[in-house]
Amino acid sequence: MARRATFQKAINEALEQEMERDSSVIIMGEDVAGGTYTEGDSDAWGGPLGVTQGLYTKFGDRVMDTPISESAFIGAAIGAATCGLRPVAELMFIDFMGVCFDQIFNQAAKFRYMFGGKAETPVVIRTMIGAGFRAAAQHSQGLYPIFTHIPGLKVAVPSNPYDAKGLLIQSIRDNDPVIFCEHKMLYDMEGDLPEEPFSIPFGEANFIREGDDVTIVAIGRMVQMASEAGDALAQDGIQCEIVDPRTTSPLDEDSILESVE
Fold it and tell me: Where in the chain is the domain with CATH 3.40.50.920?
């Protein structure tokens, strides 16, 4: 059954339902609980925008606040993934990738191929991307293309609450490392969201709008902007087809080419 919910709620609900389903799912990151081991509310923060709020209260030590050392906790999450857990690590802003990049592209992305396909690294790295609320130069970049170009990594960039929940559940269940990019300006966006768990396969684009004159390919927040552009062009008799790839790795090239043709 579907109801209206925000992008933020969709992320929280996906995490909660997967943690209920699978006891190997854990959460790690800076302030993902907030207030842990201090006086007062032990679940006061839930990340910088409250996305994980309430999960520590329900799942206890499976939600772990970490020191402010991305290299340490991203490395720990990748190590935990190789040992049977399914960590969801929150890299607060994608801009911080520089201090933990070796762990991601030189370790997690390569384990499967270094060990003849026998090693699995089912880790999800959730991270915020994009500008829009004056977070300044070191907290506002959209660096997902860097991860997209690295063999061994999967990259998801949802554009709405439905996709956010379905793609995150798919990410957690996947046996490869996934970089899950959340545009910070989408957290308050509302949309129809089923209450039950569901997953969206990687590499399957969503056709947002049909049209025969021009194709626009957009991901994340740009899907909204592309839709507005499509409305404006329609007033001039130009019909746009808008394709949302949902994931940049794997990329649904067939759907994009089909639209262009």
Answer: 206-260
Q: What is the pLDDT of residue 109?
A: 96
13: Cβ contacts below 8 Å, ≥ 6 apart:
5, 165, 193
Q: Indicate the burial class of 35 (C-beta count within 10 angstroms; 0-12, 13-18, 19 or more).
A: middle
Instruction: Assess whether pLDDT exceeds 60 at residue 10.
Output: yes
Give the integer Cα–Cα distance in Å for 133 and 130: 9
104, 177 contact by CB (below 8 A): yes
Choose the catalytic residue: 9, 126, 139, 154. 139
Domain 2-194 has CATH 2.60.40.10: no
Is residue 11 a contact partner of residue 164, using CB atoms and an 8 Å limit?
yes
The pLDDT-based confidence of 261 (bands split at 50, 70, 90) is confident
As a CATH number, domain 206-260 is 3.40.50.920
**Annotation says 139 is catalytic:** yes
Considering the chain, what is the average pLDDT of its residues?
A: 93
Name every residue whose Cβ is closer than 8 Å to that of residue 130 and which is 6 or more positions away in sequence: 140, 141, 142, 183, 184, 185, 220, 221
pTM for this entry:
0.94
CATH 3.40.50.970 segments of the chain: 2-194
What pLDDT does 140 receive?
77
The pLDDT score that the predictor gives to residue 44 is: 61
Once rounded to an integer, what is the mean pLDDT over residues 112-122? Answer: 94
Q: What is the DSSP string of 35-67?
A: STTSSS-TTS-SSTTSTTTTHHHHHGGGEEE--
